[in-house]
Amino acid sequence: MTTRSDLQTPAPSTDVAMPAPATEEATTRHTREEISALGAGLRAATDGRRYADVRALARATVPARLMVRDAAQTVPEAREWTRRSLRELVGLGLAGSGFPAEHGGLDDVGRSCVDFEISALGDLSLTVKSAVHFGLFGGAVTSLGTDWHHENVLPQTLSLEQIGCYAMTEYGHGSDVASLETTLTYDAATDELVVHSPTRSATKTYIGAAAEDARIAAVYGQLVVDGRTHGVHVVLVPLRDEVGQPLPGVTLGDNGHKGGLLGVDNGTITFDQVRVPRRMLLDRYGGIDDSGTYVSDIDNDNKRFFTMLGTLVRGRICVAAGAAASTRKALSIATRYAVRRRQFDAPGHDGEVVLLDYLAHQRKLLPAIATSYAHLFAVTEIIERLQDLHEAPEKDQEAHRELETRAAGLKALMTRHANDTIQVCREACGGAGYMSENGLTGLRADADVFATFEGDNTVLLQLVAKGLLTGYKEMWGDLDVRGMVQFAARTLGGQVVEATAVRPLVSRLVAAAARRSEDHTLLDRGWHLSMFVERERHVLETLAARLRRGKDHDAFATFNAAQDHVLMAARTHMDRMVLEAFVTGIDACEEGEVRDVLERLCTLYALSSIEADSGWFQAHNRMSAGRAKAVTTQVNKLCAELRPHAVAIVEGLGVPEAWLGSAMLTEPEVWTPGVPA
Amino acid sequence: MTTRSDLQTPAPSTDVAMPAPATEEATTRHTREEISALGAGLRAATDGRRYADVRALARATVPARLMVRDAAQTVPEAREWTRRSLRELVGLGLAGSGFPAEHGGLDDVGRSCVDFEISALGDLSLTVKSAVHFGLFGGAVTSLGTDWHHENVLPQTLSLEQIGCYAMTEYGHGSDVASLETTLTYDAATDELVVHSPTRSATKTYIGAAAEDARIAAVYGQLVVDGRTHGVHVVLVPLRDEVGQPLPGVTLGDNGHKGGLLGVDNGTITFDQVRVPRRMLLDRYGGIDDSGTYVSDIDNDNKRFFTMLGTLVRGRICVAAGAAASTRKALSIATRYAVRRRQFDAPGHDGEVVLLDYLAHQRKLLPAIATSYAHLFAVTEIIERLQDLHEAPEKDQEAHRELETRAAGLKALMTRHANDTIQVCREACGGAGYMSENGLTGLRADADVFATFEGDNTVLLQLVAKGLLTGYKEMWGDLDVRGMVQFAARTLGGQVVEATAVRPLVSRLVAAAARRSEDHTLLDRGWHLSMFVERERHVLETLAARLRRGKDHDAFATFNAAQDHVLMAARTHMDRMVLEAFVTGIDACEEGEVRDVLERLCTLYALSSIEADSGWFQAHNRMSAGRAKAVTTQVNKLCAELRPHAVAIVEGLGVPEAWLGSAMLTEPEVWTPGVPA
């Protein structure tokens, strides 16, 4: 069994055959990564408080060959590469951090998110393969299981002796987990659970590792005891025997080729009356006692269900962090290309113009970089908060629900930014951007699925809106339309935003801006914050009022007519949360060049957001026509100001050059017109 | 040699070994495509005047197996499939239509665009492979060559005996064709042209068919005669011998795996003093006479260059049409899925809610469908105009330049819409959307490159702006910054928009709207048109004024500071052109349900565009705050009104169900929760 006593030194497992972690090669390579003082300062500012050393160590030790996969691999090749690389990842100490310390982990769920984030700077198949096994399967065993499960499952999970998968999604239901059709029926006569797929739509699908590698599954299904259904529970079900053959009653399929993540063997699972011992039920929140009676500390089925689903929070934080990491990598590639690639002569200028000197090109990349900085601060913050709450002596229910809501929102925001931005980066590199060897199209294809897995973005934003409308007081229900409408009906105008308290620093800045004259500068942070706060407050208050006015007899019609408003409420709330994280992060920096660049990036982020919602701000009398035009002018001005620092700014995004995996960045002479053959 | 005397009946080539076109199977299959009367009516309305029969015949005869490629194919498999399918495509009469009639074509360049559009409803590798050979290579020979080239090259091109490629792009220069580095130097001693790559950046790259199949290339390079450079010309250069080995002096490379279009063998070509006879120069616009002197009817090098590049217009129309076709296919898949997929119970409703009944889902798909209808009318119109101009007894230079400008703009608009919309469609199908077998991710990956090939979108939009600023009077220069600024300086305010005359129908509608009171309805077409016209006029006039005010000594700085403004001028112009095409198309329809649905789609298109630019309209006092909010309400209302017709509306998009290649649409029982196994 792998044990790790030292956070800082990757400790290869002793009983798993794996190649040496090759830290020497990696260190040598990374010693050569010379970055600017500004770049180093930006990295230090964004690495956060708690896991800065973990991030820095990974940048210096993880070898590039583990982070870059050949995009031309076939599905079998990609799966084999991923399988082998997973062992190396474990050897480097980038897996299982969230497991209990007594079973070889670090009991550090925050660290497990950082592990995910680091590996997401490399190949996303490996990231997801690892996350399914350690994060989802291992996480379910850790969080939903009890001592027996920990002792009997986690060791072989950590050693990769037994690969696990996470069998939640069915063909019939993805987002709507409460409606899963698989049944887990207790048979008192044999003291077993019978796992069954009663319909074709109950077939588990898109299950990572089900197609080839998984030997055991954490299966979500409706628990039926003595004829009564107790809602969704999770049971461990062995899938394959020692030689990899499906066990009796288990039918396994292969989802085949996907839009990306070719290294992950997603598959289908159908159960035909498969029997497992009672103890295989992960029974931390609800189980069956020796007398065959269902027992749970949580009486309400719905509340229990959402307490169990609450353990998904880490997965969503990981996906947010991973999407943000992929975006930073794409921006690093495209920006480094944009400062070397020249195109078109310009009158009165020597040589052809460097791409990034065009305003249109700056507009493509720099506001996206500013947003990525904002996201970096927000991600670092939520990861640290996750671990802080995990370590707290008493569980703070409301704080945890706030965290779940924030995780859902960040996941939606950051995966959207990832899909949009990676595509912009690919196009910004022209034909070269379309060649797989340059690293952008694979990133694009792999990160794509982040928009819909671990919670569909549209569904997650509704969850955020519900959290806001109910002040996190009632979260039992996912897309529970009736609950949302009823709660809104009980909420009085003005109350809603207070549910997410504005931070003291932010209050101060907003108050200071309010005291100043009306024509405060566009660069005033207090004005930015007040615009974000006001946008959120107004959208949320008018949403609550609208839902209150709705027809009581048709909650769905009321909700549905306002669905775009619901989504905007969630989005504007998350925008405010992200800006606050950025502002808080900057506040921790000393005066100097690093802080100055961060301030400009923050202003660019804030003004880009205001510019994008210019129509809303004007329609709601928050911004004059003149100011709307001035915002655009200021965005262009900031682009010009940040342009000279572009390389240092992408160094600050924290992606080592050796991990970029972009051929066009390593063959300079090909790209410079006029050099003799 | 293939000859075709009948437009309507696909005539398989007689002397090329190829499988029978299997029209029987296809016809049988398609007889079963039962579409609604509304769907059929919409198809009739959008199929256009001239090529309606070609489109209808293709839908009824092209077999699905030719249109759907297995996304799991490896690069070699995909290339082989594409190679074989190309022969079938020729057999079906979907290639070479633009060739002169005396050499086996139809002398119908419009038809060749329709051929491209039809094949783009299938697999884009096949589309592009065909387009490179017939459209780019064959097109260059046809347009830039003279009799000798037509007689000696076109027959073996049409029969696929000799695959050609189009060697324009170099590593160092893609968009900036005028700066290509390859040299074509005339050696009077041997009466040969010496083709040479003087630098590493002169290597031709991303050249379709260069990696494996091409035997001959149309090579762009700087023609040097007697020590003087005459600008870019095109010469035919054999690349491979009979057994496929590179000829002496020719070095061929393989671009390898790409982000999509795996069936196209893109590669690199380097020339080391390769000699070809003088007659290999495509000398329609400029050549070398028997005395070894350069001769051309066009004195100005720059003017000659852009006359030659003008032949690219068809390629851009094809890419626009292809991108639009891919988008329609994706929307057809996602919409058909959205009317069958159910998710989440709703209080007071029977069963779970169908995805497309959610407002948010309608918002994702229906405005995009409306835009696709707008694009369909615009594409059909420009294809017909291309052929009308081609057939005109005298070449109308200004009309041709307007066409080039419009083609550039439509290409930029439609490829942007394609990338955005296909991604929305993929996400709207959740996890299923990410499985290759469901057809969306492959479409997304393949269509991606449309944004940057056949002209980078950002560059093309600048070309449009320049056309507008100069009233199409001066088009000699691509991204010629100085020219644009100087012309703007000579232009008086108010003159600019008149360069693109508003159509009489549109003028009438706009005038009628202006006569009515200020609070005319949001549904008033005249109001929509006047908003589009005003937006364009104001953006263009203020751009001209801004360029005039710029510093004369630094034209680049003046241009660059306004680059976002330049792009907006182009975009708003194109939006107006597209809306006018839609309005004109509807005007040709009789009263009835088809027209009624088209009117609503047109309104949805117009209001979505106005909503997206809400910030601009308010900042420029073209729309009040109240009206801005009302536009959003009206967009939602239109979505609800169109929802019941969703299936008929996507039938109207003209993609036969059998060509969708989406497994999830053919396995209904899997997707309906609750059906017993």
Automatic annotation (TrEMBL), chains A, B:
Lineage: Bacteria, Bacillati, Actinomycetota, Actinomycetes, Micrococcales
Protein name: acyl-CoA oxidase
Superkingdom per UniProt: Bacteria
Bias-annotated ranges (Polar residues): 1-12
Cofactor entry: FAD
Gene3D superfamilies cross-referenced by the UniProt entry: Acyl-CoA dehydrogenase/oxidase, N-terminal domain, Butyryl-CoA Dehydrogenase, subunit A, domain 2, Butyryl-CoA Dehydrogenase, subunit A, domain 3
UniProt domain Acyl-CoA dehydrogenase/oxidase N-terminal: residue ranges: 54-160
Main location: other
InterPro entries: ACOX_C_alpha1 (IPR055060), Acyl-CoA_Oxase/DH_mid-dom (IPR006091), Acyl-CoA_Oxase/DH_mid-dom_sf (IPR046373), Acyl-CoA_oxidase (IPR012258), Acyl-CoA_oxidase_C (IPR002655), AcylCo_DH-like_C (IPR036250), AcylCoA_DH/ox_N (IPR013786), AcylCoA_DH/ox_N_sf (IPR037069)
